[in-house]
TrEMBL record:
SUPFAM superfamilies: C-terminal effector domain of the bipartite response regulators (SSF46894), Pheromone-binding domain of LuxR-like quorum-sensing transcription factors (SSF75516). Keywords: DNA-binding, Transcription, Transcription regulation. Pfam families: Autoind_bind, GerE. InterPro entries: Sig_transdc_resp-reg_C-effctor, TF_LuxR_autoind-bd_dom, TF_LuxR_autoind-bd_dom_sf, Tscrpt_reg_LuxR_C, WH-like_DNA-bd_sf. Coiled coil: none annotated. This is LuxR family transcriptional regulator. Residues 194-259 form the HTH luxR-type domain. It comes from Mesorhizobium calcicola. The keyword Transcription applies. The keyword Acetylation does not apply.
């Protein structure tokens, strides 16, 4: 099981830029925790995404049996700030039924670039047309973050740019962290009881996910706790399973949001 990025990314890019993005991410997380409505969360995420040159974002939460973006219940499960003309065109043409972003998000657990889907041999011409037309309305490049939850719950978050400039790995990591946190906060606001109920964690599982949140690899955690790498991965996989998370980054964020590990512990000395 390869290591995933930590809650505090340490990719190689200019120190000044790293500090700016880290500060902005921290500000977003703090403000999101205090938000009382989904609309407030969306506005905060939109403001954060602008730091990474993404003026447009879209969030969709779908039931397992739905094939389109139309929500099954009256809750605000669809939030987006795409250009009005593109929204009208999208639903007028029925693109919600063939959207390759939805199809790909259902199959994957990690973020993906739209360009990768467009160039995939399995993508049909009709699906490529969705991307082509989106580009004519200004959405020329983007990424999407699949968000899989318990009981088949499925959502995704997309970030779009008006330019063809590609997304660097570091930008995708920051956007993924923000999207996961957004999704968890929306779940907490819409169903506070369900997000406060989580499986019991062993002391060792808590230790492993805490050090994961601090950015340590399985090898490093093994050295710190004096256990084997296989044992570390075993405990982290258990945490991922118990928290219905597709990767260790999502599991660490959920553990933080649920209070399984404390924010002060994560930010403490490593």
């Amino acid at each position: 099981m390869p290591d995933q990025p930590s809650l505090f990314p340490s990719m190689h890019f200019p120190k000044a830029a790293k500090e700016v993005f880290t500060v902005e991410l921290g500000r977003y997380l703090d403000q999101a925790d205090a938000a009382a409505q989904s609309e407030q969360l969306f506005d905060l995420l939109s403001a954060f995404a602008l730091n990474l040159d993404c003026p447009w974002i879209a969030y969709g939460s779908l039931a397992p049996d739905l094939k389109s973006l139309k929500p099954a219940r009256p809750e605000p499960t669809i939030m987006l700030n795409y250009p009005n003309e593109w929204r009208e065109r999208y639903f007028e043409m029925g693109y919600d039924r063939i959207d390759p972003i939805i199809k790909t998000s259902r199959r994957r657990t990690i973020p993906f670039r739209w360009s990768d889907v467009y160039n995939d041999a399995n993508t049909t011409e009709d699906e490529r047309r969705v991307f082509d037309e989106a580009a004519t309305f200004g959405l020329r490049s983007g990424i999407s973050v699949p968000l899989h939850g318990p009981k088949g719950r499925f959502a995704f978050m997309s970030f779009a740019r008006p330019s063809d400039y590609g997304f660097e790995d570091r930008s995708i990591t920051y956007l993924e962290l923000a999207a996961i946190h957004f999704d968890l906060r929306v779940a907490r606001l819409t169903d506070s009881r369900s997000v406060n109920e989580y499986p019991e964690m062993s002391a060792r599982e808590k230790e492993c996910i805490l050090w994961t949140a601090r950015g340590k690899s399985s090898w490093e955690i093994g050295k710190i706790l004096e256990i084997s790498v296989n044992t570390v991965n075993f405990h982290i996989k258990n945490v991922m399973r118990k928290l219905d998370s597709g990767n260790r980054t999502a599991a660490a964020i959920k553990a933080l949001n649920f209070g399984i590990i404390g924010a002060q512990d994560v930010a403490g000395s490593s």
